[in-house]
Amino acid sequence: MKSLKLILANVLILSTLSANDISKEELGRMLFFDVNLSKNRTQSCATCHNPEVGFIDDRENGVSKMASLGDDKKSLGDRQAPTASYAKFSPPFHFDEKKGLYKGGQFWDGRANSLEEQAGGPPLNPIEMGLKDVKEAVSRLKENEFYIENFKKLFGENIFSDDKIAYEAMTKAIASFERSDEFSTFDSKYDRYLKGEYDLTPLEDLGMSIFFSNNNNSCAACHVLKGEGKEGETFTNYEFHNIGISENKSLREKNGVKDKDLGLLANSNVNDKNQIGKYKTPTLRNVAVTSPYMHNGVFKDLRTVVEFYDKYNNKERTINPETNLPWDEPEHKDTISLKELKANAQNDRKIDALVAFMRLLTDKRYENLIKE
User: Fold this and answer.
1) Of 44, 100, 307, 359, which sits with the fewest C-beta atoms within 10 Å of its C-beta?
2) pLDDT 10s digits, 303-346
Protein backbone atom coordinates (compact mmCIF):
# COMPACT_ATOMS: atom_id res chain seq x y z
CA MET A 1 0.00 0.00 0.00
CA LYS A 2 2.82 2.41 0.85
CA SER A 3 4.51 1.68 -2.48
CA LEU A 4 1.27 2.34 -4.36
CA LYS A 5 0.83 5.66 -2.58
CA LEU A 6 4.41 6.61 -3.48
CA ILE A 7 3.86 5.73 -7.14
CA LEU A 8 0.63 7.74 -7.30
CA ALA A 9 2.29 10.71 -5.59
CA ASN A 10 5.14 10.70 -8.09
CA VAL A 11 2.79 10.43 -11.05
CA LEU A 12 0.62 13.25 -9.70
CA ILE A 13 3.61 15.55 -9.23
CA LEU A 14 5.08 14.83 -12.63
CA SER A 15 1.76 15.06 -14.46
CA THR A 16 1.51 18.70 -13.39
CA LEU A 17 4.80 19.58 -15.05
CA SER A 18 4.63 21.25 -18.43
CA ALA A 19 6.81 20.29 -21.36
CA ASN A 20 8.84 23.41 -20.69
CA ASP A 21 9.64 22.33 -17.12
CA ILE A 22 10.56 18.67 -17.25
CA SER A 23 14.15 17.41 -17.12
CA LYS A 24 15.58 14.00 -18.02
CA GLU A 25 15.79 13.24 -14.30
CA GLU A 26 12.10 14.03 -13.79
CA LEU A 27 11.10 12.01 -16.83
CA GLY A 28 13.23 9.18 -15.51
CA ARG A 29 11.41 9.34 -12.19
CA MET A 30 8.09 8.84 -13.93
CA LEU A 31 9.46 5.92 -15.97
CA PHE A 32 10.98 4.36 -12.85
CA PHE A 33 7.51 4.04 -11.30
CA ASP A 34 5.59 3.10 -14.46
CA VAL A 35 4.08 -0.40 -14.28
CA ASN A 36 2.97 -0.11 -17.93
CA LEU A 37 6.54 -0.96 -18.92
CA SER A 38 5.91 -4.60 -17.97
CA LYS A 39 3.97 -7.18 -19.96
CA ASN A 40 0.98 -7.44 -17.61
CA ARG A 41 1.29 -3.85 -16.36
CA THR A 42 1.98 -4.92 -12.79
CA GLN A 43 5.68 -4.19 -12.32
CA SER A 44 7.99 -1.18 -12.51
CA CYS A 45 11.64 -0.55 -11.74
CA ALA A 46 10.48 0.52 -8.26
CA THR A 47 8.90 -2.89 -7.67
CA CYS A 48 12.31 -4.51 -7.31
CA HIS A 49 14.10 -1.32 -6.21
CA ASN A 50 11.67 0.21 -3.73
CA PRO A 51 12.84 3.70 -2.64
CA GLU A 52 11.08 3.30 0.71
CA VAL A 53 13.34 0.44 1.80
CA GLY A 54 16.79 1.14 0.41
CA PHE A 55 15.98 0.46 -3.26
CA ILE A 56 15.65 -3.31 -2.87
CA ASP A 57 12.80 -5.76 -3.48
CA ASP A 58 11.09 -5.98 -0.08
CA ARG A 59 8.24 -8.18 -1.30
CA GLU A 60 7.98 -11.59 0.33
CA ASN A 61 7.75 -13.33 -3.09
CA GLY A 62 7.20 -16.68 -1.38
CA VAL A 63 10.94 -17.03 -0.73
CA SER A 64 11.57 -14.61 2.16
CA LYS A 65 12.76 -11.85 -0.22
CA MET A 66 15.69 -13.98 -1.45
CA ALA A 67 14.82 -13.34 -5.12
CA SER A 68 12.33 -11.36 -7.20
CA LEU A 69 9.03 -12.50 -8.65
CA GLY A 70 8.40 -11.64 -12.28
CA ASP A 71 5.54 -9.71 -13.85
CA ASP A 72 3.83 -13.03 -14.66
CA LYS A 73 3.56 -13.71 -10.90
CA LYS A 74 5.24 -17.10 -11.23
CA SER A 75 8.75 -16.62 -12.63
CA LEU A 76 11.30 -16.48 -9.82
CA GLY A 77 14.89 -15.35 -10.15
CA ASP A 78 18.00 -17.01 -8.74
CA ARG A 79 19.69 -13.87 -7.42
CA GLN A 80 18.62 -11.15 -5.06
CA ALA A 81 17.94 -7.72 -6.58
CA PRO A 82 20.91 -5.58 -5.46
CA THR A 83 20.24 -2.14 -4.06
CA ALA A 84 20.11 0.66 -6.61
CA SER A 85 21.29 3.15 -3.99
CA TYR A 86 24.80 4.51 -4.62
CA ALA A 87 24.93 2.47 -7.85
CA LYS A 88 25.93 5.52 -9.88
CA PHE A 89 29.44 5.37 -8.41
CA SER A 90 30.28 1.98 -9.90
CA PRO A 91 32.82 2.47 -12.72
CA PRO A 92 32.28 0.92 -16.16
CA PHE A 93 33.05 -2.79 -16.25
CA HIS A 94 36.75 -3.29 -16.98
CA PHE A 95 39.80 -5.41 -16.26
CA ASP A 96 42.26 -3.76 -13.89
CA GLU A 97 45.63 -4.70 -15.38
CA LYS A 98 47.52 -3.50 -12.30
CA LYS A 99 45.57 -5.67 -9.85
CA GLY A 100 44.80 -8.44 -12.32
CA LEU A 101 41.07 -8.55 -11.69
CA TYR A 102 37.73 -7.32 -12.99
CA LYS A 103 35.95 -4.29 -11.56
CA GLY A 104 32.77 -2.28 -11.98
CA GLY A 105 29.65 -2.55 -14.04
CA GLN A 106 26.10 -3.16 -12.84
CA PHE A 107 24.36 -6.36 -11.70
CA TRP A 108 26.09 -8.99 -9.56
CA ASP A 109 28.20 -10.09 -12.55
CA GLY A 110 28.91 -6.62 -13.96
CA ARG A 111 27.32 -7.48 -17.29
CA ALA A 112 25.85 -4.00 -17.76
CA ASN A 113 28.54 -1.44 -18.38
CA SER A 114 26.50 1.52 -17.17
CA LEU A 115 23.26 2.54 -15.47
CA GLU A 116 21.76 3.01 -18.92
CA GLU A 117 22.53 -0.59 -19.89
CA GLN A 118 21.21 -1.82 -16.56
CA ALA A 119 17.95 0.11 -16.98
CA GLY A 120 17.42 -1.50 -20.37
CA GLY A 121 17.68 -5.06 -19.09
CA PRO A 122 14.66 -5.82 -16.84
CA PRO A 123 11.86 -4.62 -19.17
CA LEU A 124 12.95 -7.15 -21.82
CA ASN A 125 13.85 -9.98 -19.43
CA PRO A 126 11.23 -12.76 -19.80
CA ILE A 127 11.33 -13.63 -16.09
CA GLU A 128 11.25 -10.02 -14.94
CA MET A 129 9.09 -7.38 -16.67
CA GLY A 130 8.57 -9.61 -19.68
CA LEU A 131 8.10 -7.29 -22.66
CA LYS A 132 8.66 -9.08 -25.97
CA ASP A 133 11.10 -6.64 -27.55
CA VAL A 134 12.15 -3.01 -27.95
CA LYS A 135 9.25 -2.34 -30.31
CA GLU A 136 6.69 -3.40 -27.71
CA ALA A 137 8.40 -1.30 -25.05
CA VAL A 138 8.33 1.79 -27.24
CA SER A 139 4.69 1.16 -28.13
CA ARG A 140 3.94 1.32 -24.39
CA LEU A 141 5.68 4.69 -24.23
CA LYS A 142 3.66 5.99 -27.15
CA GLU A 143 0.42 5.17 -25.35
CA ASN A 144 1.19 8.13 -23.09
CA GLU A 145 0.86 11.59 -24.60
CA PHE A 146 2.94 13.02 -21.77
CA TYR A 147 5.82 10.76 -22.77
CA ILE A 148 5.48 11.57 -26.46
CA GLU A 149 5.58 15.30 -25.79
CA ASN A 150 8.50 15.20 -23.38
CA PHE A 151 10.60 12.61 -25.21
CA LYS A 152 10.43 14.88 -28.24
CA LYS A 153 11.37 17.90 -26.17
CA LEU A 154 14.34 16.20 -24.52
CA PHE A 155 15.59 13.95 -27.32
CA GLY A 156 14.38 15.54 -30.54
CA GLU A 157 11.23 15.61 -32.67
CA ASN A 158 12.21 12.41 -34.51
CA ILE A 159 12.95 10.35 -31.41
CA PHE A 160 10.17 7.84 -32.15
CA SER A 161 11.24 7.25 -35.75
CA ASP A 162 13.61 4.49 -34.57
CA ASP A 163 12.49 2.11 -31.82
CA LYS A 164 16.02 1.28 -30.74
CA ILE A 165 16.97 4.93 -30.33
CA ALA A 166 13.71 5.67 -28.48
CA TYR A 167 14.36 2.74 -26.12
CA GLU A 168 17.87 4.00 -25.46
CA ALA A 169 16.42 7.42 -24.67
CA MET A 170 14.17 5.75 -22.09
CA THR A 171 17.20 4.14 -20.42
CA LYS A 172 19.03 7.47 -20.41
CA ALA A 173 16.14 9.14 -18.61
CA ILE A 174 15.91 6.37 -16.00
CA ALA A 175 19.68 6.51 -15.47
CA SER A 176 19.46 10.28 -14.99
CA PHE A 177 16.98 9.72 -12.16
CA GLU A 178 19.21 7.02 -10.65
CA ARG A 179 22.11 9.47 -10.65
CA SER A 180 20.13 11.96 -8.59
CA ASP A 181 20.89 12.66 -4.94
CA GLU A 182 17.74 10.75 -3.98
CA PHE A 183 19.68 7.53 -4.54
CA SER A 184 22.86 8.66 -2.78
CA THR A 185 22.21 10.97 0.15
CA PHE A 186 25.42 10.48 2.20
CA ASP A 187 23.58 11.54 5.36
CA SER A 188 24.02 8.47 7.58
CA LYS A 189 25.22 8.70 11.17
CA TYR A 190 28.69 7.88 9.87
CA ASP A 191 28.55 10.86 7.51
CA ARG A 192 27.24 13.04 10.30
CA TYR A 193 30.04 11.80 12.55
CA LEU A 194 32.59 12.91 9.96
CA LYS A 195 31.02 16.39 10.08
CA GLY A 196 31.06 16.49 13.88
CA GLU A 197 27.28 16.11 14.09
CA TYR A 198 27.12 12.67 15.74
CA ASP A 199 29.02 11.05 18.62
CA LEU A 200 29.88 7.38 18.26
CA THR A 201 29.00 4.96 21.02
CA PRO A 202 31.92 2.94 22.44
CA LEU A 203 30.73 -0.14 20.49
CA GLU A 204 30.42 1.81 17.24
CA ASP A 205 33.85 3.34 17.77
CA LEU A 206 35.36 -0.10 18.31
CA GLY A 207 33.60 -1.40 15.20
CA MET A 208 34.95 1.45 13.10
CA SER A 209 38.50 0.79 14.32
CA ILE A 210 38.21 -2.88 13.48
CA PHE A 211 36.55 -2.24 10.13
CA PHE A 212 39.27 0.04 8.79
CA SER A 213 42.19 -1.90 10.24
CA ASN A 214 44.02 -4.14 7.79
CA ASN A 215 45.55 -5.96 10.75
CA ASN A 216 42.32 -7.03 12.43
CA ASN A 217 39.98 -8.10 9.67
CA SER A 218 39.39 -8.34 5.94
CA CYS A 219 36.62 -5.71 5.67
CA ALA A 220 38.97 -3.03 4.38
CA ALA A 221 40.35 -5.34 1.70
CA CYS A 222 37.14 -5.10 -0.35
CA HIS A 223 34.76 -2.63 1.26
CA VAL A 224 36.90 0.51 1.37
CA LEU A 225 37.51 2.73 -1.64
CA LYS A 226 38.66 6.11 -0.34
CA GLY A 227 39.73 5.34 3.22
CA GLU A 228 38.82 6.03 6.82
CA GLY A 229 37.46 9.49 7.52
CA LYS A 230 37.00 10.36 3.84
CA GLU A 231 33.68 11.84 2.77
CA GLY A 232 31.82 10.08 -0.03
CA GLU A 233 33.06 6.59 0.89
CA THR A 234 30.91 4.00 -0.91
CA PHE A 235 32.20 1.03 1.11
CA THR A 236 33.07 -1.09 -1.90
CA ASN A 237 36.06 -1.18 -4.25
CA TYR A 238 33.82 -2.69 -6.98
CA GLU A 239 36.02 -5.77 -7.35
CA PHE A 240 34.77 -9.31 -7.99
CA HIS A 241 35.53 -12.07 -5.51
CA ASN A 242 34.41 -15.56 -4.57
CA ILE A 243 33.94 -15.61 -0.80
CA GLY A 244 32.67 -19.17 -0.69
CA ILE A 245 28.91 -18.68 -0.63
CA SER A 246 26.90 -21.87 -0.83
CA GLU A 247 24.02 -22.69 -3.13
CA ASN A 248 20.73 -21.40 -1.72
CA LYS A 249 18.92 -24.72 -1.58
CA SER A 250 15.65 -23.41 -0.18
CA LEU A 251 15.42 -20.84 -2.99
CA ARG A 252 16.16 -23.39 -5.67
CA GLU A 253 13.52 -25.72 -4.34
CA LYS A 254 11.07 -22.97 -5.31
CA ASN A 255 12.55 -21.64 -8.57
CA GLY A 256 13.61 -24.99 -10.01
CA VAL A 257 17.11 -23.87 -11.02
CA LYS A 258 19.46 -26.86 -11.30
CA ASP A 259 22.63 -25.42 -12.80
CA LYS A 260 25.29 -23.73 -10.72
CA ASP A 261 25.45 -19.95 -10.78
CA LEU A 262 28.63 -19.10 -12.69
CA GLY A 263 28.96 -15.64 -11.17
CA LEU A 264 31.32 -13.41 -13.14
CA LEU A 265 31.82 -16.15 -15.71
CA ALA A 266 28.16 -15.64 -16.71
CA ASN A 267 29.17 -12.21 -18.02
CA SER A 268 29.51 -12.53 -21.80
CA ASN A 269 32.62 -10.31 -21.69
CA VAL A 270 34.46 -12.85 -19.53
CA ASN A 271 35.75 -16.24 -20.66
CA ASP A 272 38.39 -16.91 -18.00
CA LYS A 273 37.29 -19.99 -16.02
CA ASN A 274 39.17 -18.65 -13.01
CA GLN A 275 36.37 -16.07 -12.62
CA ILE A 276 33.73 -18.67 -11.85
CA GLY A 277 31.76 -18.00 -8.68
CA LYS A 278 32.94 -14.41 -8.28
CA TYR A 279 30.48 -11.57 -7.63
CA LYS A 280 30.80 -7.82 -7.41
CA THR A 281 31.50 -6.50 -3.93
CA PRO A 282 28.30 -4.67 -2.92
CA THR A 283 28.15 -1.33 -1.18
CA LEU A 284 27.62 -1.49 2.57
CA ARG A 285 25.54 1.66 2.45
CA ASN A 286 22.11 0.76 3.93
CA VAL A 287 23.28 -2.80 4.53
CA ALA A 288 21.48 -2.96 7.89
CA VAL A 289 18.09 -2.52 6.21
CA THR A 290 18.55 -4.43 2.95
CA SER A 291 18.48 -8.05 4.06
CA PRO A 292 18.67 -10.87 3.06
CA TYR A 293 22.35 -10.97 2.17
CA MET A 294 24.74 -12.26 -0.49
CA HIS A 295 23.95 -12.57 -4.19
CA ASN A 296 21.40 -15.31 -3.54
CA GLY A 297 19.94 -14.07 -0.26
CA VAL A 298 21.23 -17.10 1.63
CA PHE A 299 21.70 -15.24 4.95
CA LYS A 300 18.93 -13.40 6.77
CA ASP A 301 20.87 -11.59 9.47
CA LEU A 302 23.79 -9.15 9.22
CA ARG A 303 25.53 -10.72 12.18
CA THR A 304 25.48 -14.07 10.39
CA VAL A 305 27.35 -12.47 7.50
CA VAL A 306 30.12 -11.26 9.81
CA GLU A 307 30.35 -14.68 11.49
CA PHE A 308 30.58 -16.26 8.03
CA TYR A 309 33.63 -14.15 7.21
CA ASP A 310 35.16 -14.95 10.58
CA LYS A 311 34.90 -18.70 9.97
CA TYR A 312 37.88 -18.47 7.62
CA ASN A 313 40.12 -17.39 10.48
CA ASN A 314 38.39 -18.66 13.62
CA LYS A 315 38.46 -22.41 14.18
CA GLU A 316 35.63 -22.10 16.68
CA ARG A 317 33.28 -20.44 14.20
CA THR A 318 31.97 -23.68 12.69
CA ILE A 319 28.18 -23.32 13.01
CA ASN A 320 25.78 -21.23 10.97
CA PRO A 321 23.68 -19.49 13.66
CA GLU A 322 20.63 -19.41 11.38
CA THR A 323 20.54 -23.17 10.85
CA ASN A 324 22.46 -24.40 13.92
CA LEU A 325 24.29 -26.67 11.49
CA PRO A 326 27.81 -26.53 10.04
CA TRP A 327 28.29 -23.98 7.27
CA ASP A 328 27.25 -25.37 3.87
CA GLU A 329 29.92 -26.13 1.30
CA PRO A 330 30.67 -23.31 -1.19
CA GLU A 331 29.09 -23.56 -4.62
CA HIS A 332 32.53 -22.97 -6.19
CA LYS A 333 35.41 -23.78 -3.85
CA ASP A 334 38.38 -23.58 -6.26
CA THR A 335 38.35 -19.82 -6.80
CA ILE A 336 37.77 -18.53 -3.25
CA SER A 337 39.66 -15.30 -2.50
CA LEU A 338 41.54 -16.69 0.47
CA LYS A 339 44.12 -13.90 0.42
CA GLU A 340 41.47 -11.21 0.82
CA LEU A 341 39.65 -13.25 3.47
CA LYS A 342 42.74 -13.69 5.63
CA ALA A 343 42.35 -11.83 8.95
CA ASN A 344 42.58 -12.13 12.70
CA ALA A 345 39.86 -14.12 14.43
CA GLN A 346 37.12 -12.04 16.02
CA ASN A 347 35.44 -12.65 19.38
CA ASP A 348 31.71 -12.08 19.86
CA ARG A 349 32.12 -8.52 21.15
CA LYS A 350 34.15 -7.53 18.09
CA ILE A 351 31.53 -9.05 15.82
CA ASP A 352 28.85 -7.07 17.64
CA ALA A 353 31.02 -3.97 17.18
CA LEU A 354 31.35 -4.53 13.43
CA VAL A 355 27.58 -4.93 13.12
CA ALA A 356 27.09 -1.74 15.15
CA PHE A 357 29.41 0.14 12.82
CA MET A 358 27.67 -1.10 9.68
CA ARG A 359 24.34 0.02 11.09
CA LEU A 360 25.83 3.53 11.12
CA LEU A 361 25.92 3.42 7.32
CA THR A 362 22.14 3.67 7.02
CA ASP A 363 20.73 6.73 5.21
CA LYS A 364 18.84 9.00 7.59
CA ARG A 365 15.45 8.30 6.02
CA TYR A 366 15.86 4.55 6.64
CA GLU A 367 17.06 4.67 10.25
CA ASN A 368 13.54 3.86 11.45
CA LEU A 369 13.78 0.52 9.59
CA ILE A 370 16.68 -0.74 11.70
CA LYS A 371 15.54 -3.57 13.93
CA GLU A 372 16.87 -3.50 17.46
Assistant:
1) 100
2) 999 999 999 999 999 999 999 999 999 999 999 999 999 999 99
In the chain, the amino acid numbered 183 is: F
What confidence tens digit (pLDDT) does each residue in 65-114 have?
999 999 999 999 999 999 999 999 999 999 999 999 999 999 999 999 99
Pair 264, 276: CB distance under 8 Å: yes
Kindly give the interhelix angle for 24-32 and 2-15, rounded to the nearest 10 degrees: 150
Is the CB of residue 317 less than 8 Å from the CB of residue 310?
yes
pLDDT of amino acid 8: 55
Task: In whole angstroms, give the CA distance from residue 233 to residue 175.
Answer: 21
Task: From residue 295, give the alpha-carbon distance in Å to each of 50, 108, 165, 204, 244.
Answer: 18, 7, 32, 27, 11
Q: Which residues fall within 8 angstroms of residue 247, CB to CB, at 6 or more apart? A: 260, 261, 296, 328, 331
From CA 35, how far away is CA 130, in angstroms rounded? 12
Over the stretch 107-151, which tens digit does the pLDDT of each residue have?
999 999 999 999 999 999 999 999 999 999 999 999 999 999 999
Q: Among 38, 133, 132, 126, which Cα is nearest to 75's? A: 126
Neighbours of 372 (CB within 10 A): 3
Contact yes or no for 277/242 (Cβ under 8 A): yes
Q: What is residue 15's predicted lDDT score, i.e. its pLDDT? A: 53
Residue 263 phi/psi, 5-degree rounding, is 65, -130
What is the value of pTM for the model shown?
0.92
8 Å CB contact between 290 and 103: no
Q: What is the DSSP string of 328-368?
A: PPPS--TTB-HHHH------HHHHHHHHHHHHTTS-GGGGG
User: DSSP label at 134?
Assistant: H
